[in-house]
Give the backbone structure.
Amino acid sequence: MDDRKLAVLRAIVSDYVATQEPVGSKMLVERHQLGVSSATVRNDMAALEDEGYIAQPHTSAGRIPTDKGYRLFVDRLEQIKPLSLPERRAIAEFLGSAVDLDDVVSRTVRLLAQLTHQVAMVQYPSLSRATVRHIEILALTPRRLLAVVIVSNGRVEQRVIEVGADVSDDLLGDIRARVNQLALGQRVDDAARAVGALAGSFGVDDRQTVQDVVTCVLEALAERAEDRVAVAGAANVTRFGHDFDSQIRPMLQALEEQVVLLHLLGEAETTSALTVRIGAENARAELSSASVVATPYGDGTDTVATLGVLGPTRMDYPNTIAAVGAVARYVTRILSGD
């Protein structure tokens, strides 16, 4: 496609996103500095329609972008306008004050919905891809211990351990050192296997105490039911009733199914890059009028989960892409401890 027709397509997308009204050639000439006559614009629009990038919703109307037109628009975005400094500061302050991983996810999904005015989705990080950062074992009383397990996806697990005999400071320090030697930097499942055999390396008198500690640490490392997605802003779907027509109800029903949400976010996780799926590119029929913008987030060294938004194909793609990407970067910083 030559630059002039691409400029016309960009102008049509911009106007239709802003006004929700089909766009005519006269409107394009008046609103955009295209540098050509109305007749030339009409010819370019006719060519774009023939090629399937725009369509006429009804007789005597202007033109609207098709899924193919939106796809070309997104693929040929020259630059993404960065968020303003006040917006970036607000995001950093809001997410930075989270107290734990659940709070990070909750704040992230609400922030995404607010920034984009779309349905926001954030997948909970999976322990299976996380590594162990630190395991702390502290004495609350001589026979009551506290195990704290910190993993790279931001999760902190705590367990209270009741043991049958007093634990000396030397034994406690020895257990702590050996547990961390085996687990530090290891994938969670690898760390669990290594720590599981630890009791056998201690003397007979200490093995039961060590086994009690190991059992508690293994419980903290165990994979929980984490294939779930937090959602916020579902009510935003109703703001775009015209875009979704009769699909609002089935769309809302689809958004209640965790497996659907995981599938929507799955492509970004697979490609390890921000992805945009438009209209019919979504496999489910009830989402054929929607677009999904999703991207992975991580712990600074690895991808741990994905986040994104769902909205109408008539979406402000540049701003939505910028917001999703920015939020993912901030969440990654938080989980990596930066």
Summary: The longest helix spans residues 317-336. Residues 3-75 form a domain with the Arc Repressor Mutant, subunit A fold (CATH 1.10.10.10). The chain has 13 helices and ten strands. The mean pLDDT is 87.
